[in-house]
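Late entry, written up from scratch paper. The run itself happened at the end of the previous shift, but nothing got recorded in the book at the time, so transcribing now.
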Amino acid sequence: MKISDLIKEEIALAKENAKKVLANGSATMEEINAATLKIDTLEAKLQLALKEEETIRTNVAGTILENQETPTGIDSQAYEKAFLNFIKGKSTVDDQMVIQAALSSGTDENGGLLIPKDQETKVIELARAYSSLRDLVYVEPVSTLTGTRVIEVDGEYTAFAEVEEGAKISDIENGTFKSIGYSCKTYGGILPIPNNLLKDEKGNLLYHISKWFAQKKVATENKVILEILNSFSKTAIKGIDDIKTAINVTLDPAISSNAIVVTNQSGFNELDKMKDSDGNYLLQPDPTKPTQKLLKGRSVRVYPDKVLANDTTKVPIVIGDIKKAITLFDRQAMTINSTDIGAGAFETNTTKLRGLLRLDAKKFDEKALVFLQLDTAGA
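Output as recorded:
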């Protein structure tokens, strides 16, 4: 937290105290003058702090422009120390200079601290250990909160018109286009950290923060992706023949050849028990990955039931090229702020760390996947 922010909070408290003094009919002139003087003194300190912070920002910006260097050259250990001090609410002027030098123009306009690069890497590494749906979809990093993408529907089947010698080439006719707009929403949560833990300069604090961000990052992305996935029309199936029909007929051959099979634990259990009329199991071992299975040559991805939930007794079996079906727009601006005064932190002797993500997901091709549901009731 910046020094100016702390002074602003002190001013708010001083003004509240002044109101109480005025409301007290028996207040003495000394008490009234003291309350007024405290407010005036704090407001003067605030102006000095704001000027100092503006000077720091100007000097840092000038240094970066003069040297023509990007913030990536900042000493990671110095940034880590400044990062920890920021969380503890003990930032010095030197810490603020290190932090501000590492801030990007994409940071939240109200102020936010980017996670140090090594911490961001740890978050990504930890995220891979959880059941993330991110790898299934197409991820498009974006630099704006909103935007539009225009695609042609069934463009691969709309041919060029024949052009006679010397004739004017006409515009493509019968093309159907649709506009898909995205608007990244903000998702956030608060991590309370006991101040007793913060007394330790190092410990496992950074790991604890990275783990928390990784869990919430994955859970948030999964939620956004599943909202789109569940919007696809669902088809009830009874067994192997319906699955083969979906792969052979329902899906376009170009989609089917690149398709994968996505299901949950319950769905995998049902698929793993299926046999054809000759007694051959539907799922076959993947010779390149001994621990995984193939369904008609398509890899099978299995997620926990808690992530990809059943619809009562119906288990999900999704088949298709999901990267063509769904796009995740990632604003790539994970920001954090902390306080040890507001949001109930003062009363509980904690420092509260707030994390924010900005994401959106959209359906791009309705025909790029089939969402099958196998009812296990009575099976």
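Residues 29-67 form the longest helix (39 residues).
(Scratch paper discarded after transcription.)
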